[in-house]
Amino acid sequence: MSLSNKLTLDKVDVKGKRVVMRIKAAIPSIQHCIDHGAKSVVLMSHLGRPDGVPMPEKYSLAPVAEELKALMKREIIFLKNCVGSEVESACADPAPGTVILLENLRFHVEEEGKGKDAAGNKVKADAAHVEAFRASLSKLGDIYVNDAFGTAHRAHSSMVGVNLPQRASGFLMKKELDYFAKALENPERPFLAILGGAKVKDKIQLISNMLDKVNEMIIGGGMAFTFLKVLNNMSIGTSLYDEEGAKIVKDLMAKAEKNGVTITLPVDFTTADKFDENANTGQASVSTGIPDGWMGLDCGPESIKLFVEAVGRAKQIVWNGPVGVFEWDKFSKGTKAVMDKVVEVTGKGCITIIGGGDTATCCAKWDTEDKVSHVSTGGGASLELLEGKVLPGVDALSSL
């Protein structure tokens, strides 16, 4: 799946056309369509996890319509459903320049293909009903635009089932694809991956795929303890240990060696006597080990030095997962030091891409979203791309 050869909104003539758009944070894409004479822009989105049961009191998009109205300073028509004859007729021939927001797609089990019934039992959507749902969505426009990168790893009806001749990425989706294409198809070098998070087994595919792409890799966060226990026979106290992931550590290190990738693991730690914001803290190193009853919750000063040096060598960085429990100040020093250095090298021309999820939360916490090259809006979607997977929502777009 090439990321760089997909049809984009700026290459589509929207004049006089009805544009049906899957959105997350898409105001520039909406505005572009209006400015270029689109007859209508029909917006579809989801909120929460109603699992195919209408819950308007909890998950309605009606408040979004009000917010959109304020942001765009124009009338927004809100429809109380997203499919069916009433919706189809409302979208059939609207006044030029109309913006319509549909109700939450996930009020229908056909959007995700599965959900729960009113009693909470799991249900699967009927194939014929899914077809009808997709056919109804496809009647709402002439051109399909997908600007919901955060849902691109889901083969949901609104992502892959709107059957229109032109299926383009919106500007937000385009920005995501451009940055990830740069990272995965044509990176600047030296290329560094910073990988954190808790469990090795959750990141095996990520580590393995990135070992084919990068020159250097920092492995931090909770999963570092599994590596250190296997490789150095380090005593790790009650730190995170991933039994399953441990089985593959040596294979991953062998692959790194074969590919000439430099791996940097932490060498010292800030420890805690319990998993608590107000825990007593201590220091430990790989050679001393972590005492029984204690756990490592951040990397120590020597590790920070090594990590910061690796960041300083890079011309391109992908960062997925914090290197400590950054939510608590006592254990945020490692992640904050890496973030500060990432911001510094960005200013000097290094391309820095922050995978979504927790690492994006770090950027929000320290107000660095505008100080790195790109913060992804999709946690799961960016992770799957970096793992080398095909994203259904991207695959479904028209190719150039």
UniProtKB/TrEMBL annotation:
Pathway: Carbohydrate degradation; glycolysis; pyruvate from D-glyceraldehyde 3-phosphate: step 2/5
Lineage of the organism: Eukaryota, Metazoa, Chordata, Craniata, Vertebrata
Protein name as it appears in the record: Phosphoglycerate kinase
EC number: 2.7.2.3
Signal peptide range: none
Principal place of residence: cytoplasm
A Gene Ontology biological process term: gluconeogenesis
GO cellular component, as recorded: cytosol
Pfam family, one: PGK
Enzyme class: transferase
Annotated GO MF terms: ADP binding; ATP binding; metal ion binding; phosphoglycerate kinase activity
Transmembrane segments: none
Requisite cofactors: Mg(2+)
Reactions mediated catalytically: (2R)-3-phosphoglycerate + ATP = (2R)-3-phospho-glyceroyl phosphate + ADP
Keyword Lipid metabolism recorded: no
PANTHER family assigned to the protein according to its UniProt record, in alphabetical order: PHOSPHOGLYCERATE KINASE (PTHR11406)
